[in-house]
Specification:
Length: about 160
């Protein structure tokens, strides 16, 4: 970023901060927030241009809540804990890595609390929710990430005992 661009953005930032300090009401604060958002977008565009990136990878992160009906499909022990935590998980919407003309998105749903580390993804949000509910049942691989697995098939145990 050149010095002139830095000075311009710096001056705008100073002016916005002064307006925030002296703002009189809610309506003016909303207008200031809008201007601040536009300034941040400009800074992001300048930074990606300076780094030689064609476009920034946009990922949107939010909470996703599950309905009572959806929670009924979860394992009861997990459901109690999930409901105590607000029945919400983190969802991230990212652009798919596939190079196609039409933009596709991938939805990742994550839940990491109290020893649980559930991560599922799909190009359809409803399919991702279905996978999340499925991951809370039984011994799916998503549910066991980060946990100690103590159930081994008999063949594996016989093989281990035979080596010793």
């Amino acid at each position: 970023m050149n010095v002139k661009g830095q000075t311009s953005i710096s001056n705008e930032m100073t002016a916005i901060m002064a307006r925030i300090v002296m703002s009189a009401g809610k309506r003016e604060n909303v207008a200031i927030a809008t201007e601040f958002g536009k300034l941040i977008d400009r800074v992001a565009q300048i930074e990606t241009g300076a780094a030689g990136l064609s476009s920034p990878e946009k990922a949107i992160s939010a909470e996703i809540r599950f309905t009572k009906e959806e929670r009924r499909g979860m394992l009861p022990a997990f459901r109690r804990e999930f409901e105590a935590a607000g029945s919400a998980a983190r969802v991230i919407k990212r652009q798919s890595g596939q190079k196609r003309v039409n933009k596709r998105y991938v939805y990742e749903i994550r839940y990491r609390r109290n020893g649980y580390k559930i991560e599922v993804s799909s190009t359809d949000i409803n399919e991702a929710k279905r996978k999340f509910i499925q991951a809370t049942l039984g011994d799916s691989s998503e549910r066991l990430v980060g946990r100690v697995y103590t159930h081994f098939p008999d063949e594996f145990m016989k093989e281990q005992n035979g080596k010793g």
